[in-house]
């Protein structure tokens, strides 16, 4: 065989090897490797629309919607008649909340494939959302939005005689009430709506009095536990309390956002956390995550869960309460905690964070958006976000931010990690995630961090998932599990 032929044969076998590996990854749900192999295939042939489209699907599966959108767009640049490309671009835009753009692509798919039932369904679903949003905008501009609280008459809500669940004591959350409520939820029973409303109205009042940047001081001997995303995994939340003790004045906690969505028990998680906030307002802390927002709750399950278990009106009140969750917390002027991460521009100060008017849905850019959405990256500088919102920031960005604000390090959450936590940027950027076996399928550990006033050194504690799949089965079948509601669709 000539040398040229040899080169061609080996190149071809590598090439086909890559593609076979890609397909294996898809069938094994190993999307990270599928991305790697399609990237290799694209290095060899960068004009193949199918590879871009397939990598786009893998990005959708790993929730890198920004990258998914870029790949679908690229596939269409290469071949504007490639229908799957339109479908992928629509799915990406849908996940990013860009419904009008999604609708346009679904229209194209439906026009070319009028008999595709699935595409028609997606088109109708998207069309409904676009119309609903237009309607909401029309009413919003007509009147200043009133609070749900003003239309409630909680005093006169009656608790039926056959309800034998927990009740607030003289309208107050007590430790006894909390213990009873946690047991009640454990048995998958519903808290009376009057009690749920009482908690919500009171916690709105407490949260609205807090600054956007909460500053606390730990004394030498004091310790705080920082937890990351919990995402409606109620049984895992109970497990944290079992392992690490119930919250109390001497056992303070900070939960770093993303309490709801995805898991089937978001209501149980959030009512438990709000209850403890009312019981220990100075020793139990909550920060807002990107999932404590209307767009996310609509797509990832919480809105549906509240409507199924209670009412649309109660969801409205949740939405109002979420808007008052603080955005960041500083411990002993040295450790800054936020859900997402640092900023799209240098020069942001703690004073800027104090000044954020947070009582709103987060904007598409700026410090409030970044606090909820950004992610760290290993390389210096900043790059476009894989999620399509905010940015990714490198170790040099972290270094400059910490220097300017005289801080030691940041703690953030927002990304699932195999070990439950990850230390990056030379120890200056720590990720903590507390939803083990995320979505009943990731196989990851959960973790929480202990910080002591004496040295502020992070001490990591890992834990594994309790068996929640049995509990979530019934809801799963009802379509309430957001792993089902998730906007990632297979075509
Ligand atoms: Mn998040």
From TrEMBL:
E.C. no: 3.1.3.16
GO molecular function, a single term: metal ion binding
Q: Which InterPro entries match?
A: Calcineurin-like_PHP, Metallo-depent_PP-like, PP5_C, PPP_dom, PPP_phosphatase, Ser/Thr-sp_prot-phosphatase, TPR-like_helical_dom_sf, TPR_rpt
User: Which stretches are TPR repeats?
Assistant: 83-116
Q: Which residues form the signal peptide?
A: 1-22
Catalytic activity entry: O-phospho-L-seryl-[protein] + H2O = L-seryl-[protein] + phosphate; O-phospho-L-threonyl-[protein] + H2O = L-threonyl-[protein] + phosphate
Location(s), subcellular: Cell membrane; Cytoplasm; Nucleus
Where is it mostly found?
membrane
Q: Which GO terms describe its cellular component?
A: cytoplasm; nucleus; plasma membrane
**Any Pfam family matching the protein:** Metallophos
| Record-linked PANTHER family | SERINE/THREONINE-PROTEIN PHOSPHATASE 5-RELATED, SERINE_THREONINE-PROTEIN PHOSPHATASE 5
Protein's name in the database: Serine/threonine-protein phosphatase
Source organism per entry reads Dicentrarchus labrax
